[in-house]
Amino acid sequence: MIRRPLLLCTLTSLALAACSSSGTSDPGGNPSNETALAKSNLQRAPAAEVPSDALSGASAANNAFAVDLYAQVLTAPTASTHNVLTSPLSASLALTMAFSGAHGQTATEMAAALHIDPNARDAAFAGQNALSQGLNARAAAAFARATQNAKSGGAAPSADDYQLQVVNSVWGEKSYTWEAPFLDILATNYGTGVYQTDFIHAYEPARLSINAWVSDHTNDKINDLLAKGVLDDATRMVLVNALHLKMPWETPFEASLTRPDTFTLADASTVSADFMRLTTNLGYADDGDAQVVTLPLANRELSVVIALPHDGVSLSSYEAKLGAKSGVLAPPPQTQLVALSLPKVNFTSPSFSLAEPLKALGMNQAFDRAQADFHGLCAQPPDGANLYVSDVVQKAMIAMEESGVEAAAATAVVVAGTTSIEVDPPSPVSVVVNRPFMISIVDQPTGAVLMLGHVQNPTETAQ
Questions:
Q1: Measured distance CA(334)–CA(336) in Å, rounded
Q2: Strand-pair partners of 438
Q3: Dist. CA 339–CA 253, nearest whole Å
Q4: pTM of the model
Q5: Do 9-248+346-418 and 259-343 come out as alike in CATH topology?
């Protein structure tokens, strides 16, 4: 039985309408040698200079957003029978880049959905900056430790097996001038500027360039994030966050112990899967409804957490109780000897819209083409366009095998610009006159009823 996975996660792209400025080349991350970069002269703020409460605040906000977003994603009809994977971090990073240019009610709603204190915007951006840079240092630290261990007789590690990068890029319509405060925030907190792009006349080549950037920064694990038709000549900006992780387990599984076994699905049917086996001390807790196991990755700074509901406790009922303090989000610190049997996993999601879940979280005005307020991105668009979010898309992959884990994800927040406010036509009301009905003839100017009756049988010709 083949089950198509439904997942969501981490690269984020945001398409908007706004303004151009003279740019400089960016040899480090430039997608093209000829692509100009509009960028602030400010440097990215070192993580060490970010107050600790800003970092902890960003993590807490992201986790609260994760719980809220996941709950909404689970309302999709396919979520009860298919795999689901989200990357709230990637979504948060992309959305906070957009939030930096939001004003008024649009900003208020985005702040509430993202659990950001609207009076502490700078702290929110700084916290995301420190969090991203901290994550970007994890792989190097793990590789250094493995290299040191190899000097004591262990196997020499390969740098290719120790990867974790969280990167951002922004692509903006070249005929627009982007606001200096927005460019400052991108430079100091997200390490990027705005690649000047011809969305109006060449949106399809732009889509291919963005997809190529995503593939390159996710080790070719997230491809075709933006499907054909997602961008058009109304696109003005695309803000992208990409996340890629590849890391060995702290304690690898022995491949010789892997063998097929039965996996029982929610409907009580079964499939055969390859189960990895490991017996070692692991973080463990039983919260009364599930066994929660923590599997650390190399250097023990990152972990995979498994929450297995007990027999008689459905996954859906367990997920309904999910909170920021749940074991799957707050791994148990206590260790215990665990004999673990874990199925191997390797799946990639299709691109999946987060627009409705975000609206359900109260982020409505950002999607309103008439009311959305992103003037912090560009105060006076040259074509008079108003910016609004037209869609938010995620795509992700994860693979777990004996040696370690690889995961990647992308989120695309597509923002378009409109120069005339269009109103979607109302859905027609269905009226099927297929049963007895009343009939009248009324004089409109006077309201006089000329005829009134009912029809029981339209084929009747005389009584």
A1: 7
A2: 454
A3: 11
A4: 0.84
A5: no
pLDDT means per 10 residues, the chain with 463 residues, are: 36 43 39 75 96 92 88 86 84 94 96 95 96 92 92 85 93 93 97 94 94 95 93 92 90 92 86 86 86 86 85 86 83 85 84 91 95 92 88 85 88 77 50 35 36 42 39
| pLDDT 10s digits, 57-116 | 998 898 888 889 888 988 988 888 888 888 888 899 999 999 999 999 999 999 999 999
What one-character DSSP code corresponds to residue 142? H
CATH topology (fold) of 259-343: Alpha-1-antitrypsin; domain 1 (2.30.39)
Residue 211, C-beta contacts closer than 8 angstroms, at least 6 positions apart:
223, 224, 225, 226
Determine how β-strand 163-173 pairs with β-strand 194-197: parallel
Residue 233 is given by DSSP the state T
Burial label, 229 (beta-carbon count in 10 A; 0-12, 13-18, 19+): exposed
Q: Which helix (H) or strand (E) holds 90?
A: helix 88-99
| Angstrom distance (rounded) from CA 390 to CA 416 | 6
Strands (E) located in 198-344: 235-248, 259-264, 270-286, 290-296, 303-309, 335-343
Query: Rounded to an integer, what distance in angstroms lies between the CA atom of residue 457 and that of residue 6?
Result: 52
Three-state DSSP class for 406? Answer: strand
Q: What is the largest CA-CA distance in the chain?
A: 107
Tell me the pLDDT tens digit for each residue of 200-217.
999 999 999 999 999 999
Task: Measure the CA–CA gap between 366 and 248, rounded to whole angstroms.
Answer: 40
Residue extents of the structural domains in the chain: 9-248+346-418, 259-343
Beta pairing partners, 414: 391
Both tokens assigned to 255: 């491949």
Pick the CATH number of 9-248+346-418 from 3.40.50.880, 3.50.50.60, 3.30.497.10, 3.30.420.340: 3.30.497.10
280: tokens are 């070692």
For residue 349, with 0-12 CB atoms within 10 Å meaning exposed, 13-18 middle and 19 or more buried, which class applies? Answer: buried
Pairwise CA distance, residues 337 & 295, whole Å: 12
